[in-house]
Amino acid sequence: MNKKEFWFVVGSQFLYGPEVLDTVARRAEEMAKELSKQLPYPLVYKVTAKTNGEILEVMKEANHDDSCLGVVTWCHTFSPSKMWINGLEILQKPYCHLATQYNREIPNEEIDMDFMNLNQAAHGDREHGFIAARMRKPRKVIAGYWKDEAVIKRLSAWMRTANGVAFSRSLRVMRFGDNMREVAVTEGDKVEVQMKLGWQVNTWPVGKLVETMEAVAEKEIDELMDVYRSSYDFATDDEETVRYQAREEIAIKKMMDAEGCSAFSNTFQDLYGMRQLPGLATQHLMAQGYGYGGEGDWKVSAMQAIMKRMGKDENGASAFMEDYTYNLVPDAKYSLGAHMLEVCPSVAAAKPRIEVHPLGIGDREAPARLVFEGKEGDAIVVSLIDMGGRLRLICQDIHCVKPILPMPNLPVARVMWQAMPNLETGLECWITAGGAHHTVLSYDVTAEQMKDWATIMGIEFVHITKDTTVDSLEKELFLNDIAWKLNR
């Protein structure tokens, strides 16, 4: 994180003389330094831009500097927007327009025409905003006083999103086997995805994984077992089964790291040469920030890795999730999310337990897995689907609760939640939009961040909220279909 930064480019012009320009530069540098103390990444003041050439050069530099994750602009004074055209046209990094001003209040005694000429962000930001709108340039607009907590919080979230964008554009996904047979929603156009999102999605043979597992040393397994003991409670005496999961984890991680992959998928229909389906192995890899998708679902695998990177400390509470069953009792309507093995412990309410139980599918030994309940709190679930010709990102607001039943015979990690606006309407909206059964559930990535990510990536975004109705969503999807067909 220390090697990443955002650039602060401030707009002005020569009209007001060198004294005003010196003041603008001094204030811009002060603002960048103060904001950097509260933002997740440094905001570096680069230039008070006064000409087409200055803007073009700084945008070229931003594009080619790998440490620069995005550009934040602000117009302290009036900055004629035609001089921004060439620079914005070539800018390939995420772009945020911070509409603020240096002073919080209008000073009654101090205000005169000199003050007005210097402090006219209300004038300059509108001119600057027009040209981005005219150019149809994707950008984030954040308005408010730069010292306010709400502004800093939104700017911080956007920075994390921009980091997710950079991560996405270099993301590599390792697939062990293909998709689960006959399943539709886990399919997708890998060429389109690489063009739009940057993902490189390729397959490695399960036999290569088995070879790598066989080469894992017992000392390596001993060391990982110590990590398991310090991180989780052991609720099994079957140490050999747990050690096999450690062997699987070490091998998967070695293969991913060797190929520069940050996410992986597998399927219980292709376990040739393996004694167990990776359970604990997969869960602990997710806890380290790797993305995962079951049944060959490489899209959800990649999205989890990205959303983890967008979360707190670049490994937030985001988990591979699957909708399983509903509680349809009046006044207690909830979704129960789980998976047969693989839910990330980053969403656990308490210390997870390592247990060993038969799986019932895959025709292999009973695997070790982490069992826990998800924590309470507001969250989102996200699904990326291929609509044929375009990608659609569906996001639903939810509220997670402590599971209302102990479910003593269900030996899996589980999360229970209330879907917005309610279970039935939320379900109808999700199905109408084509949302998958696999999702990423996140407590610390917001719907606003996901919308920003989709906007930067140039894909469709659908948000199901407490105010969404089936009728309103159907109209939105109809208009989206028309708009996206026109844009093709």
Gist of the model:
It contains 15 helices and 19 strands.
What Rg do the Cα atoms give? 25 Å
**Unreliable segments (pLDDT under 50, ≥5 consecutive)?**
none
Report the major sheet. 6 strands, antiparallel, barrel
Strand content: 15-25%
Q: Number of helix segments?
A: 15
Helix fraction by DSSP (H/I, runs of at least 4) = 25-40%
Tell how many strands the DSSP assignment holds. Answer: 19
Output mean pLDDT.
Answer: 95
Structural class: alpha/beta
Shape: elongated
User: What is the topology, as strand order, of the major beta sheet?
Assistant: 11-12-17-16-15-18
Instruction: State the end-to-end distance.
Output: 37 Å
Any overview of this molecule?
The chain is built from 15 helices and 19 strands. The chain is of the alpha/beta class and 488 residues long. Strands 11-12-17-16-15-18 form a 6-stranded antiparallel β-barrel. Strand 3, helix 3 and strand 4 form a beta-alpha-beta unit. Helix 6 runs antiparallel to helix 12, helix 8 packs across helix 10 and helix 13 runs parallel beside helix 15. It is elongated and about 80 Å long. The model has no long low-confidence stretch (mean pLDDT 95).
Task: List the defining traits of the structure above.
single chain, alpha/beta, six-stranded antiparallel beta barrel, 488 residues, manganese
Q: What is the topological layout?
A:
Layout: E1 5-11, H1 18-36, E2 43-49, H2 52-64, E3 68-75, H3 85-90, E4 95-99, H4 113-118, H5 121-134, E5 140-143, H6 149-168, E6 172-176, H7 190-197, E7 200-204, H8 206-214, H9 218-231, E8 233-234, H10 239-259, E9 263-265, H11 280-287, E10 291-293, H12 298-310, E11 318-329, E12 332-338, E13 353-356, E14 368-371, E15 377-386, E16 391-401, E17 414-419, H13 423-433, E18 438-442, H14 447-457, E19 460-464, H15 470-487
Parallel strand pairs: 1-2, 1-3, 3-4, 4-5, 6-7, 6-9, 8-13, 9-10, 16-19
Antiparallel strand pairs: 11-12, 11-18, 12-17, 13-14, 15-16, 15-18, 16-17
Pathway: Carbohydrate degradation; L-arabinose degradation via L-ribulose; D-xylulose 5-phosphate from L-arabinose (bacterial route): step 1/3
GO cellular component, one term: cytosol
Keywords: Arabinose catabolism, Carbohydrate metabolism, Isomerase, Manganese, Metal-binding
